[in-house]
Amino acid sequence: MPRIAVCLLLLSFVVIVAIGSGKLGPATVASANVAAASDDDHDDGDGFSPKEWAIIRSLSVSTAGPAGGHDQQVS
Amino acid sequence: MDTTNKYRDSDAAALMGQKLFFEPRLSGPIQEGTAQEGQLGNIGDKYKIACRNCHMPESKWLYDIRSNNGGKIPNATALGSAWMTRNVSSVVNTVFYVHAKSEAHWRENDGYSDSEWFDAQSEPEGPPVQNGSRLQLAHVIFEHYYNDYNAAFPEWPLDAGLADYNRFPATGSPYTDSANWNSLSAGDKEIVNRVLVNYGKAIEAYLRKLVSRNAPFDRFVAGYDNAISKDAKKGLKLFIGKAGCVGCHNTPLLSDDDFHVIGLHIDKGLSPHADPKETGRQFNQPLICDPKVADGDFNVNGHFSDDPRTQRDGNFCKQTIPVGQWRTKGLRQIAETGPYFRDGQAATLDDVIEFYDRGGDPQGTFLGGPKEIRPLHLSHTEKDRLKEFLKTLTGDPIPSRYVQDLHNP
C-alpha cells in the first residue's frame, strides 16, 4: 500500500508539472483563448477555433489560394 | 482559370501586353485637365496616355498617384483623356477576381465586363480613358507591333489590308469617329475587332504576371505565428466574426467578385468628378449582352471567346438587375492603395472602417437599396485592430522586369 500511495503521489506531481508546462491539455488552452478573445476588447487571447481556422485558411493564398507563382497558372 | 482566353499563359502574348501597357500611341485627343491636375499634355494633344499613366509603376501597386482634382482628396478619381467618375484600382492580383460560386469573372467596380480581355480592350477607345479607337489601335499594332502580334497570335496573322488607310481609316469606333467605323464592311469590321480582342487577350496575359504573394497574413496561415502582431490577430478575429467583413470579402483575394448595396453616398464635395447618378451593375448589362452596343459579340459566349460554351455567366443576360449594386473590392495590398471606395471619397482606412461601423450612409442618400450592412458598434480599440489586420495583406512587390517600359519605337 505505501508503495502505491508513493506512486500515485509521484504520478500526480508529474501530471501537475506537465499541465503547468503546457505539455498536456492544448485543446483546453486553445478553446479557452477563443472563448475569451471573442468580442472582448481587453482580452489578450488570440487563438482561433477550428471553424475560424477553416475560414481563415480559405482567405489565404498559402493554402487555398490561386496556385502557382508569377509565371504559373492562375485561376 | 480563364478558359475564354487560350493565350492567357502565352509568354509572347504577355510580352506584347506589357509593351502595349506602356504604349501612348493608342490614345486620342486630350479633352480635359491641366498640368497642375496631372494632365499629360494640352487639350487636343494625341498619343499621350498609356495604361501605365493611371496604373503607375511608380506607385508600386500600379494605381494612380498622379491626378489631383483640386478637392480634399488627391487621386480620388482618375484623369484619363477626361476626368473620370471612379477611383483607379491597383491592377496587381486582379486576375484573381472570380465569382466565388459561379466562377464568373466580373471586372471593374460596376461589372463592366465578364472577362479580363473584354475589359482591357475597352480602355483604348473609352472616351474619358484613352479616347482612341479600335481602328487607331489596329493601325498602331500593324505598324509597330507586327512581329509581336503575329508571334503571339499565329492563328490570326495581321491582314495586309490594314496598310490601306482608304479601306481602313486612321480612326473610328462605335463611340468616336463612328462615321469612319460605320463605313467599313462587315468583313473589315471583323478584321479590326479581331485585333482589338487579341489586344485585350495580350493585356490579360500580361496582367497575369502582376501577382503579389507572401503577405504577412499568408505567412501566419502557413504556420509562422509571429508573422502578424497580436493586435492583427484580434483584428482578423473581428474580420471573420463581429465585423462581418468576410461575408463579402472572402476568397484569397478577399472579394466574392459579387455585387452589393453598401449604402455609399457620393459626395461631390469630397470627390468633385464622381457621379451620384451612376447606377452600377445595371448599366452594363446591355454592353455585355447586346452585341449591337459595342458592335461585336465580345462576351464570354460570343465568337471571339475561346470557350463560347462556358456557363460561367449563368443567366445574367436574362436577369433584371436592380440599381445601386457595386462589386466587392479585393483587399490585397489595400493599406497602400488609397484613397478608397469607387469615387475615392475615403482618404484613409480609418475613414473606411468608420463608414462600415456606422452601417453606411442613410437610406435615400444613395441609389438602390436596402443596404446590406448594419452598424457594427466597434470600440476604438477594435477599429484599430481591424486596421492592423488589413495592413497584413500587403505582399511582395512585383518583380521589376514586369513593370519595365518595353514599348516599341
Task: State the main characteristics.
heterodimer, A: 75 residues, mainly alpha, 3 helices, disordered C terminus, B: 409 residues, Cytochrome Bc1 Complex, Chain D, domain 2, 2 domains, two-stranded antiparallel sheet, 12 helices, 2 strands
Description of the molecule:
The complex is a heterodimer of chains A (75) and B (409). Chain A contains three helices and no strands. Chain A has 75 residues and is an all-alpha fold. Chain A has a domain of 32 residues. With 409 residues, chain B is mainly α. Chain B has two domains: 201 residues, Cytochrome c-like domain (Cytochrome Bc1 Complex, Chain D, domain 2, Orthogonal Bundle); 140 residues, Cytochrome c-like domain (Cytochrome Bc1 Complex, Chain D, domain 2), CATH 1.10.760.10. In chain B, 28% of the residues lie in helices and 1% in strands. In chain B, α1 packs antiparallel against α4, α2 packs across α6 and α3 packs across α6. The longest helix of chain B is centred in the middle third of the chain and has 22 residues. The radius of gyration of chain B is 21 Å and the shape is globular. The two termini of chain B are 34 Å apart. The interface between A and B is medium-sized, with 26 and 33 residues.
Structural classification of chain A: mainly alpha
Q: What would CATH call the homologous superfamily of the largest domain in chain B? A: Cytochrome c-like domain
| Number of strand segments of chain A | 0
Name the beta content range of chain B.
under 5%
Cα(first) to Cα(last) distance of chain B is 34 Å
Mean pLDDT of chain B equals 96
Helix content of chain A: 40-55%
**Which percent bin holds the helix content of chain B?**
25-40%
Q: What fold name stands as the CATH topology of the largest domain in chain B? A: Cytochrome Bc1 Complex, Chain D, domain 2
CATH class of the largest domain in chain B: Mainly Alpha
Rg on CA atoms of chain A, Å: 22 Å
> Low-confidence segments of chain A, ≥5 residues, pLDDT <50?
13-45, 63-75
Low-confidence stretches of chain B: none
Shape of chain B: globular
Number of extended strands of chain B: 2
In what range is the share of β-strand residues of chain A?
under 5%
Order of helices and strands of chain A: HHH
